[in-house]
Amino acid sequence: MARGMPGLWSVVVGVPIIGLGVYLFTFQTRVDSLAGIPFVVFGAFIIAVGLYVQFIAAPEEPTMREGEEIIDTRTPAQRAALAKVLVSVPVLAVAVYLFYFTFYPYVYPTLALVAGLYLFSTGLYTYWTNTLTVYYVTNKRLIKEYRFVSLIRSELPFDKVRGVQESRSIWETVAGLGDVRVQSGGGGLEISIDNVYDSTEFADLIRKQM
Fold first, then answer.
1. Do 151 and 67 reside in the same domain of the chain?
2. Model confidence over 130-140: pLDDT tens digits?
3. Count of the separate structural domains present in the chain
4. Sequence-distant (≥ 6) Cβ neighbours of residue 96 within 8 angstroms
5. Within this chain, do residues 43 and 114 fall inside the same structural domain, yes or no?
6. 144 and 79 co-located in one domain
């Protein structure tokens, strides 16, 4: 089972979207009733994926080698994802208001709708991705695991690490998070640790293992 409550939060988010679609399909007379169908489908999709993430898609702890032990385990924080979702809410509210309660040209509510859906969708996708991602630091290697439909495991032995880079996006700076990129020599494998608390401390821990 995945960490957190992605199933519950997906239901909390998806049900109002389905409700809006039902309202548009049943009661709204200003636009074609078929305009409500995409909202119902989108809301149902959010709920279905959230429940799948909650109960089926979950990372597995890696098998340790001889003499190997886990020093630290990190999971991406959800602040940046939630910030995008929260910012999208008033943008989408403005779009709905302009569409159904004003007579402005459709270009304005359409732009607001596109911007709101972009923030909402990317925030929700980041939330699901973060839920399914785990980073392990052992005394021998750095491991990143992600499991949705299938397991994706990347690992980088510390004796091959040649560079550690820290960065922060605007969203991460606001949320107090950061990213750490660990690179091997010769432009080979790179592992990106995204949206983690105390990214500098985590980067220093990796440097000590090199």
1. yes
2. 888 999 999 99
3. 2
4. 20, 109
5. no
6. yes
Tokens (6 digits) for 130: 């973060």
Beta bridge partners of 90: none
Angle (CA) 40-42-44 rounded to 5° is 65
144: left (phi over 0), alpha (psi -120 to 50) or beta: beta
Please say whether the beta carbons of 23 and 52 come within 8 A: no
Structure tokens at 91: 């943008």
Q: What residue has token string 């119902």?
A: 40
CA gap 55, 98 in Å, rounded: 39
Domain limit, last residue, from 27, 42, 58: 58
For the record, the structure tokens of 106 come out as 């459709």
In the numeric block, which tokens belong to residue 23?
A: 């309202």
How long a stretch of residues is the chain? 210
Tell whether 110 and 176 lie within a shared domain: yes
What are the tens digits of pLDDT across the range 77-97?
Answer: 888 788 888 899 999 889 888
Cα dihedral 155, 134, 6, 52 sign = positive
* pLDDT tens readout for residues 108-119: 988 998 999 999
More confident residue, 22 or 171: 22
DSSP 141-197: EEEEEEESSSEEEEEEEGGGEEEEEEE--HHHHHHT-EEEEEEEGGG--EEEEEEES
Per DSSP (E only), the strands in 45-169 are: 70-74, 133-138, 141-147, 151-157, 161-167
Model pTM? Answer: 0.79
